[in-house]
Amino acid sequence: MLAAVFSSRHTVYQDSEKGYVFVDRDGKHFRHILNWLRDGVVPTLTDSEYSELIREAEYYQLLGLIEGVSSVLNKRKEDEKSPAELTRTDIIKCIQSERVKFRGDLSLVDFSFACLKNVFFSRANLQCAKFRDVDAVGSNFHNATLRECEFTGANLRGALLAGANLQSANLQDASLIDCSFCVADLRSAHLQSADLTDANLEGANLEGANLKGAKLSNANLKGANLQRAYLRHVNLRDTHLEGAKLDGANLLGAIR
């Protein structure tokens, strides 16, 4: 990459006195380039942002990144052409059955306002699915992928979410009473005003999660990661926090 910058193909601006070099490129996308160089993972961006990133990758002659972005764009086009396997009507018909099990790819499906009591979603891919105001009492989401899902106002009382990936999920105002979130990934999750009374979050990762106004009476947070979590004005008096990590957590006004 540095060889590309200092090759004769590009004009390099250098301070004649101190020797500083100014690279006139887009700083916004440079972080994506650095992350790709570190772990080889292509970032998730919009099509227009990918076009800009390709231009930057061409400047630095990063052929691997160009190929990776092109592959993502091609797959995105194919997915847009493919019709959905299940429509919202199909989903509603299915969940009216006596015993329901969902597996496979259900990403982006809208379940909002549906009755999902005791439905089996274990190990399903539900990324970015919508569960607004659903009644999902006793449902099984064990080891399911629920990244960026929306559960605002949902009733998940007694649901099993152990081992689930809920990174950046929105659970604001949700009823999560007696739920199991053991070793679940709740990094950067939105849990404002959620009711986590009697919930089991032992070993869960809540790094950077927002728990402002959440109810945590008798909640089990033993060994949980609450680093950089937002816990302002939360009542932690009856919460089990043995072994929990609270480094960098915002505890201003919290009751302990």
Automatic annotation (TrEMBL):
Gene Ontology BP terms: protein homooligomerization; protein ubiquitination
InterPro entries hit by this protein: 5peptide_repeat, Pentapeptide-BTB/POZ_domain, SKP1/BTB/POZ_sf, T1-type_BTB
Potassium channel tetramerisation-type BTB domain ranges (all copies): 5-65
Pathways per UniProt: Protein modification; protein ubiquitination
Protein name: Potassium channel tetramerisation-type BTB domain-containing protein
Natural source organism: Gossypium tomentosum (Hawaiian cotton)
